[in-house]
Amino acid sequence: MGDIFDGWRLKKSWHWRESYTGVMQRLFDLGQQGTKLFYTPGNHDEFLREFLSFNSLGDIRIADQFVHETADGRRLLVMHGDQFDKVTSNHKWLSRLGDVGYNVLMGTNRGTNAVLKLLRRPPVYFSKRVKERVKKITNAISNFEETLARYAKANQCTGVVCGHIHIPTAIERPDGISYYNTGDWVENRSALVELPDGRLHMIESVI
Questions:
Q1: Is the pLDDT of residue 90 over 60?
Q2: Which H or E run includes 149?
Q3: pTM assigned to the model
Q4: What value does the mean pLDDT take over residues 93-100?
Q5: What is the rounded CA–CA span in Å between residue 25 and residue 153?
Q6: What does the pLDDT look like over 133-155, one tens digit per residue?
Q7: Do 202 and 178 form a contact (C-beta atoms < 8 A)?
Q8: Per-residue DSSP letter, 179
Q9: Under the phi-then-psi rule, with left for phi > 0, alpha for psi from -120 to 50, and beta for the rest, what region is 17?
């Protein structure tokens, strides 16, 4: 669902983490073992959109959007969704400023939780709380969910699976369009899985 790599941070000061290599190696290994992999870039790794004309990165199919048919025959539009975020699309400087603030909060989290661990106290997540509030405001300003649902319907799909907002969500809308947001791997540690009968199930704290 995109945003696996923070291209904004890499662009400011090149620092390729060992964990990035581990993620890529695991994906390529899965591809070589026969797993079908589809990747839709997000706003943080938008540099990967330069590869859209090639349609693939090794064994990974890459495109701005895909249509997935579930085991029970439903068509789901799959995309990151940042294209429908008015703040990200029209005010990139504001998104970058928010990203700087988020990284500061992440650093504060690490320091605070290190102390709390010594005191045997539960961790706190300032960045997660702030991000959720900001994303909810962004969602309201952009009418994100509504716009994506209309776009999915226009593409003859009965549901949409997206990322970007980073808030795990699985709802059936009154208009008959299912809306799913996969959340993220950093703080929510969430993922969306399809069961053998075609039902989609949100799982959290998977890591």
A1: no
A2: helix 144-154
A3: 0.69
A4: 48
A5: 36
A6: 655 655 554 588 889 999 999 99
A7: no
A8: E
A9: beta
Instruction: Give, in degrees to the nearest 5, the angle at Cα 193 between 25 and 132.
Output: 90
C-alpha gyration radius of the chain? 18
**Main-chain dihedrals φ then ψ at residue 158, nearest 5 degrees:** -100, 5
Q: What's the pLDDT tens digit per position in 31-80?
A: 899 999 999 998 878 878 887 878 877 788 999 999 999 999 999 999 99
Two structure tokens written together for 95: 């998104």
Question: What does the chain come to in residues?
Answer: 207
Backbone φ, ψ for residue 95 (5° rounding): -65, -40
Beta strand residue intervals within the chain, DSSP E: 37-39, 56-57, 60-62, 65-69, 75-79, 159-162, 169-172, 178-181, 191-194, 200-203
Residue 53 is given by DSSP the state G
